Structure formats: C-alpha cells, structure tokens
Amino acid sequence: VLELAKGFRGKKVHRIARDRVAKALEHSYRDRRRKKRDFHKLWITRIGAAARLHGLGYSEFMHGLNRQKVELNRQLLANMAILDPDSFKSLADSVSSLPPLKVSLLMPFFLFF
Amino acid sequence: VSKKWYIVDATNMRLGRLASTIAYYLRGKDSPMFTPSLDMGSYVIVVNSEKVGVTGRKRTDKLYRRHSGRPGGLKEETFDHLQKRIPERIVEHAVRGMLPKNRLGRAMFRKLKVFKGGDHPHGAQKPEPLPI
C-alpha cells in the first residue's frame, strides 16, 4: 500500500513513513471512539451551564426532563441552548414547575446505613 | 464573543472557595457556549486581596514554597509573611492552581487581575460583581 502519508512533517521516506502511518491509523481508530465520549462530555457541560442560567443544575434539569415521560432530548439537542434559547427556556420552565417528589422515595437510601 | 468583566471584593472571603469560583468564571463554564479549546471566559478583577481570609491556623501555618531551580534552593514562606510582602500573590497562586496547566490555562490566568486595596484601573470596563 503506497504511503498516503500526506502532510506529515518531514517523514516521507518509505521506511520511516511506514511506522508513522501505522501510528496515525492507530490514533484515528482510537480517537473515533474518543470523539463520541468527548462530545458527550461537552454537551453535558453546556447543558449544565445553560440550566444554571435558569436556576437549575444539570442533574435537576435532566431529572425533570425524565419525569415528564422521558423527554428524549439527547444531549445534542442541547445545541438548542445556544441557538434557540427560548425553547430551552421553556424546557427549563417546565422542569421548575413540576411538583416535588414525595420524601418517601428517599427511604431506600437510608436503609443502607 | 465578547468577554464579560467581573469584580470581586476578597475581604473576608475564604481563599480556596473564592479561588474556585474565580477559576470557574475564568474558564467560562458559566456559559452554554463553553468551548474547551478556546479562552472564552470572563475577566475577573479581585480587589482588597490583602483582606482575604483562611480558617484555622493557616494564617501562621500555611506554607508557600518555591524552588529557584538551583540545588538547595527551596524557599518557604508563611501565609502571614507573604501577605505582608506581596498580598496579590496569595490569590494568584490559589487561582493558578485551579486552572488547567497548559498554554490555554496560562492565557486564562492572564485574565485575572488582582489588586490590593479597593481600587483598580479598569473602571472603563464597567465590571459587574461576581455572583457568589
């Protein structure tokens, strides 16, 4: 396979390039998986920041969303927070106006002690 | 994206807690536009930095160390002492430890402006008080 080692700094001699290309392919394999994780993290951070602007935190916000019969918002649609803040605000409002859960749900946690 | 300016009065605030929130804003994590690859955080001005507080016996016991790079060049200094000498550095040191330690982190650090006393030359930026 011809070295498609385009754009590599100074390593275009077949012998050396072979190794560098192998490494580059390793990196790209690994990072295709990493990329998914990285974006997930970013979305969560952004959702959290946006939620805080509305007096909630990421955890409360997502909890509220789940309670409303699984709003499958999928983090990517927290692009909404940037591009369409009004829709995001209405989501945040729908969460804040939920009635609080009854305290009895905390009982299972206390049984651990 | 234009960056906001904030101002905080350090008087009697707990060092670490203050530094933690400052770093948060310096990084820009308060905004949904947060982007880890760029510095889109806010500027923070700290005023009255000589009045920042610590609990317990830290005032006399907390040590700041630095090494000059030469053998045997470790130098210690107590909080108390440093505060009398260069009070701004206390806050700077605390915040710097809470920012990422890379090129971007250093750039973020430059957005922190610490002053002793109550005045600062950045009136033109109309800073708002930092929400704590």
UniProtKB/TrEMBL annotation, chain A:
GO biological process: translation
InterPro entries: Ribosomal_bL20 (IPR005813), Ribosomal_protein_bL20_C (IPR035566)
Function: Binds directly to 23S ribosomal RNA and is necessary for the in vitro assembly process of the 50S ribosomal subunit. It is not involved in the protein synthesizing functions of that subunit.
Source organism: Selaginella moellendorffii
UniProt keyword annotation of DNA repair present: no
One GO CC term on file: ribonucleoprotein complex
The family this protein is said to belong to: Belongs to the bacterial ribosomal protein bL20 family.
Name of the molecule in the record: 50S ribosomal protein L20
Gene3D superfamilies: 6.10.160.10, Ribosomal protein L20
Superkingdom to which the source organism belongs: Eukaryota
Keywords on record: Ribonucleoprotein, Ribosomal protein, RNA-binding, rRNA-binding
Keyword Ribonucleoprotein appears in the UniProt entry: yes
MF-aspect GO terms: rRNA binding; structural constituent of ribosome
Automatic annotation (TrEMBL), chain B:
Keyword Ribonucleoprotein: yes
PROSITE patterns per the UniProt record, alphabetical: RIBOSOMAL_L13
Example of a GO cellular component annotation carried by this entry: ribosome
Pfam family, one: Ribosomal_L13
Any one GO molecular-function label of the UniProt entry: structural constituent of ribosome
Record flagged with keyword Nucleus: no
Superkingdom per UniProt: Eukaryota
Matches recorded under PANTHER family: LARGE RIBOSOMAL SUBUNIT PROTEIN UL13M (PTHR11545:SF2), RIBOSOMAL PROTEIN L13 (PTHR11545)
Name assigned to this protein: Large ribosomal subunit protein uL13c
